[in-house]
Automatic annotation (TrEMBL):
The keyword Oxidoreductase applies. The keyword Iron applies. Its cofactor is Fe(2+). Keywords: Antibiotic biosynthesis, Dioxygenase, Iron, Oxidoreductase. Residues 24-315 form the TauD/TfdA-like domain. This is TauD/TfdA family dioxygenase. GO terms for molecular function: dioxygenase activity. Its EC number is 1.14.11.-. SUPFAM superfamilies: Clavaminate synthase-like.
Length: 334
């Protein structure tokens, strides 16, 4: 079936599939995107995400121009990354360097920051022969499907992200903060309500306390908005986790998550959250030249495992402050 918006876009809506529209504008993607920016924003506000086929995007320069034309509030420079990315231009990145044979679970990009993208922009330059789709899930539907007692606890307590930065695995201090200068890193942490501790080997351990449920600043909908499951160590491949624990100890893992009161979040909770995400997942295999827009608060996104070459560029647009989303826990930035 299809749904017509006030801007005359014909959006193809199919159960279990990401809403789609056909652009038929090969060779003029930047102009088309800028011309239809407001109409596309209305589609994303209504449906949470849309995949646009027919632009025939070919290279990073063209993608950057499309992203800039769509980002009403500008493109963001990534900070506090959990994995490395290649930079293709100001605000234009590769997808995160994550093992192709391991899926990236559903999450909301940078939901542990005090300021995060309101919109995620994805452009596919080459699609893998198998897998690799960027999937989405409605965050309000996920919230409604989770057990009430779990939601109430997380609304009351929030969640804690614990990270260990070193030069051997995961994001380094320089990757995450854009500098290795200790003073600058400490200033950033204090300004962004991040507790920190330098380790004897020169590494850095941080803790940050955030809300798990927020209100969408535009629609007012209550949204499940966090990376509790994705950044929990129980999500890691069991062999990888065992190796990391043996090497760095249980407190030295690159990342894990806890309840806001400090209690561990066990594998049963992580599995439950991921099962709910799975039930709400919408997917559409990438085709080269595709563009996808995702409301980063209203929808979570994931990445399937894949084989073969895959090039998907990413932009983080239209920054939103956590303070403007009715957080359920209070954090004090210095």
């Amino acid at each position: 079936m299809s749904s017509s918006t006030a801007f005359s876009f014909d959006v193809d809506l199919q159960p279990g599939r990401i809403p789609m529209l056909q652009a038929d504008s090969i060779g003029d993607g930047p102009r088309w995107a800028a011309l239809h920016r407001d109409a596309l924003a209305a589609v994303v506000a209504e449906h949470g995400a849309v995949l646009i086929r027919g632009l025939g995007l070919r290279d990073a320069t063209e993608v950057a121009a499309v992203f800039r034309g769509l980002a009403t509030g500008g493109l963001m420079t990534e900070r506090e990354a959990f994995a490395e990315r290649q930079t293709y231009g100001e605000g234009v990145y590769s997808s995160s360097k994550w093992p192709p044979n391991q899926p990236m679970c559903m999450h909301h990009e940078l939901s542990y920051r005090l300021e995060f993208p309101g919109q995620m922009l994805f452009a596919c330059l080459s699609a893998p022969p198998k897998g690799g789709a960027t999937c989405v899930a409605d965050s309000t539907a996920v919230l409604d499907a989770l057990p009430r007692d779990l939601v109430e606890r997380l609304e009351r307590e929030g969640w804690i992200l614990v990270r260990n930065y070193n030069k051997e695995i995961g994001a380094s201090v320089a990757n995450a903060f854009g500098t290795e200068d200790r003073g600058a890193v400490e200033c950033y942490c204090r300004a962004n309500a991040i507790e920190f501790e330098w380790q004897p080997d020169g590494g850095l351990r941080t803790w940050q306390h955030r809300s798990a449920v927020v209100r969408h600043p535009v629609t007012g909908r209550r949204c499940w908005f966090n990376q509790i499951a994705f950044l929990n160590d129980e999500t890691l491949d069991p062999e990888v986790r065992e190796f990391l624990v043996d090497t760095y100890g249980p407190e030295g893992l690159p990342f894990t998550t806890r309840f806001g009161g400090g209690d561990a979040i066990g594998g049963d909770v992580v599995a439950l959250i991921n099962e709910v995400y799975q039930a709400e997942t919408m997917r559409e295999p990438w085709q080269a030249g595709d563009l996808m827009l995702v409301d980063n608060i209203g929808s979570a996104h994931s990445r399937e495992s894949f084989t073969g070459p895959r090039t998907v560029l990413v932009g983080m647009a239209d920054p939103v402050r956590l303070a403007d989303c009715s957080p359920t826990v209070t954090v004090n930035a210095g």
